[in-house]
Amino acid sequence: MLEHTSKQFDLELESLRTRVLQMGGLVEQQFRLAMEGLYSGDIAQLDRVITGDARVNELEVELDEACTQVIAKRQPTAIDLRMITTVIKAIGDLERIGDKAQKISKLGVRLYNQHASFAPDVELRHTADLALAMLRASLDAFARLDATAAAEVVHKDDQVDTEHTAIVRQLITFMMEDPRTISRSLDIMAIAKAVERVGDHAKNIAEYVIYMVKGRNVRHASPEELDREVNDH
Amino acid sequence: MLEHTSKQFDLELESLRTRVLQMGGLVEQQFRLAMEGLYSGDIAQLDRVITGDARVNELEVELDEACTQVIAKRQPTAIDLRMITTVIKAIGDLERIGDKAQKISKLGVRLYNQHASFAPDVELRHTADLALAMLRASLDAFARLDATAAAEVVHKDDQVDTEHTAIVRQLITFMMEDPRTISRSLDIMAIAKAVERVGDHAKNIAEYVIYMVKGRNVRHASPEELDREVNDH
C-alpha cells in the first residue's frame, strides 16, 4: 500500500514536471513567434501570439492548482517539496514571459499600423536569441536537476543586460538626431525592455532550480557566492 | 497532544502572517522614502534606501525558508496551505517592490548628480500615492482575509495605469520640444514606470489574497468575473 502510494506520488511529481516543461515550451514558442513576426511584419502571426497568451494564463492557473493539491494530499518534504514550490514560482515567471511575448506582438502591430514601411532600426534579434537560449537552458536545468547548468544561466543574464544598454543608447542617439522618431523609438525601446525582462525571468527560474537542487537560496548571492554554492557537494 | 500541536501550528501561521506584514511595512517605507528623496533632493536619504534593500532581500529569503519548513512539518491543507502559498508568492512581489524603490533612488541620485538644479518636471507623487495606497490596502486585505477589499485594490490598478500613460505622453512632448532633455526624460520615464510597477505588484498580492480566501484563482479574470467571484458566498 505504501509502495503504491509512493509510486502514485512519483507519477504526480513527474506529471507536474512534464506540465511545467510543456508550459515552458509554449512560452518559448510565443516569444520566438513574436520576435519573428516583428521582423517579418507578419501581422497575422503577431495576432496569433496575442490571442495565444490566454492559453499560457490557463496553464498557470491549472498548474498552480495542481501543485496545491499535491502538497495537500501527499505532504511532501525535502527535495519533493522544494520541487513543488519551485514549480509554483517558475510558472509565475513563465506566465510573465508569455506577457512579454504578447506585449512585443502588440507593439509590433502598432508600429506596422503607424508606419507603412516600418522596419526595426535596431538589431534586437541577437539579444532575443540570448534570452531565448537562457529560457531553454533554465528549463533543461529544471528537467535534469542540474544546478551547474542553472548557474550558467544566471551568469549569462549580464550579457543580455549589456546588450540592452547598448540598444537603449543607440535609440537615444536616433531620437536626438531626429526628434520625429521619438514616439516610435520609445515603442522599440519598450520591445527591447521586454526582451531584457525575458532574460530576467529565465534567470529567476534558474535560481529556483539551484534552490531546488541545493536547498539553498541564491537569489541575492554575488556571482562568487553562487559558484561556491553550486560547486559545494 | 493533538491540541498542543494545533496550537503550535496556529502560532507558526500567525508568525508567518506577522512577518509578511513586517516585510510589507519595510517595503512600503522604502518606496515612500525613495519618492520623498526624489522630490526633496535628499541624496543621503536616497542612499539609505539603496543600501536598505539588502534587508528586504534577506527577509524574502528568511520567509521563503520559513514557509517551506512549516509545510514540511505541519502538512497543512485547505485555507492554511493556501495562506502559505500566498505568502510564498507575496514575498516575491514585495521583494520586487523593494527593487523598484532602490531603482527610483539610484535614478534620483544620477539625476541630481547630472543636473545641478534638478527638479522632476512631471508630477509623479499622485501616482506614487495611489500605488502606495494599493500596497497598503493589499497588505490590510491579507491581514484581515478580506477578499472584497482585495478586489478593490485590483480595480484601482487601472487608475495607476491611466496616470502613467498621461505622464509618458507629457514626457514625450518635452522630448520633442527640446531634444536636449531626452536622456533626462528617459530617466524620469523609468522612474514613472517603476511607480506603475509597484501598483502591478500590489495588484498581484491582492489577487493572491482573493485566491487564499475564496480558493479560486482570479489572476486572469475580467473585472466582472472578479466581482462575481468575490461576492459569491
Biggest sheet overview of chain A: none
CATH topology (level 3) name of chain A: Methane Monooxygenase Hydroxylase, Chain G, domain 1
- Helix share, percent of chain A: over 70%
Structural class of chain A: mainly alpha
Distance between the terminal alpha carbons of chain A, to the nearest Å? 35 Å
InterPro entries (chains A, B): PhoU, PhoU-like_sf, PhoU_dom
Keywords (chains A, B): Cytoplasm, Phosphate transport, Transport
Subunit structure (chains A, B): Homodimer.
Protein name (chains A, B): Phosphate-specific transport system accessory protein PhoU
SSE topology:
The structure is a homodimer of 233-residue chains.
Chain A: H1 2-40, H2 43-74, H3 78-114, H4 125-144, H5 147-177, H6 182-214, H7 223-231
Helix pairs in contact in A: 1-2, 1-3, 1-4, 2-3, 3-6, 4-5, 4-6, 5-6, 5-7
